[in-house]
Amino acid sequence: MPVKISTRDIYKNYGAVEALRGVSVEVHEGEIHAICGDNGAGKSTLIKILAGVEQPDQGSLLVDGTERHFDTPNASLRAGLATIHQDLAVAPDMSIYQNIFMGAELTRRVLGLRLLDKRRMRSDAMGYMSQLNDTITDMNAKVNALSGGQRQAVAICRALRWNANVVILDEPTAALGVRETEQVLELVRSLKKNGKTVILISHAMNDVAAVADRVTILRTGKVQITLEGGSLTADNLSHYILSGEVNRVH
Ligand SMILES: Nc1ncnc2c1ncn2[C@@H]1O[C@H](COP(=O)(O)OP(=O)(O)O)[C@@H](O)[C@H]1O
Ligand SMILES: [Mg+2]
What we know:
- It contains eight helices and twelve strands.
- By secondary structure, the chain is of the alpha/beta class.
- The mean pLDDT is 93.
- It comes from Aquibium pacificus.
- GO terms for molecular function: ATP binding.
């Protein structure tokens, strides 16, 4: 598997707080890579650096083997990384297709005027949605009529609309019940099936063990361990996070 994204020895301080202290992570193309760790471990800081929201003090970030500097969220998006933050930032009073195309509406020219191309936005929105979920079929439906899991689907469609090949999800199941959580895990699997690389931040060990190919555990700003294969179980994840152990137990 080629390496899609790597961070090399990244440091980030907020004043006197050392949020990241030499973090090197490799995310392989096409995998679901989860980032776990206790509160304050540095997960969100790492994601903000990938998303261009924060810049590292030291260290480098490579996408497809090329060093990149993301000064803004747009720079990250242009490089093919789309981040879905925990708050989702969907507009509940607007329709599904309007949410998917928010800020980047498709237009057409009619007699020299630029008009919104609603028909194309609706059909493109349907195309993105059908990659993820076949129960959401009315692109005119208002987002406030959707469940939490369905709203995640809308936010993910927005990422697909930007042609992202890396989708980063920050705690996508944090506010959801059991059934909705299962729907979101299914969305994550669909992304992988469609060839996307997924970075998933989660506290929910069962969710992570159910979908992730590999898991990196952060602890006080450092990589504690990366788990994969048979060692990637919910019990093992909890064990490492609680104990702080760095050696693999077989
Ligand atoms: N904007 C900020 N200003 C000051 N300290 C921050 C800021 N953001 C995060 N921190 C601190 O950096 C550390 C890592 O935080 P964070 O990356 O949010 O961890 P996690 O997402 O794993 O809970 C914590 O000690 C947190 O309090
Ligand atoms: Mg966080």
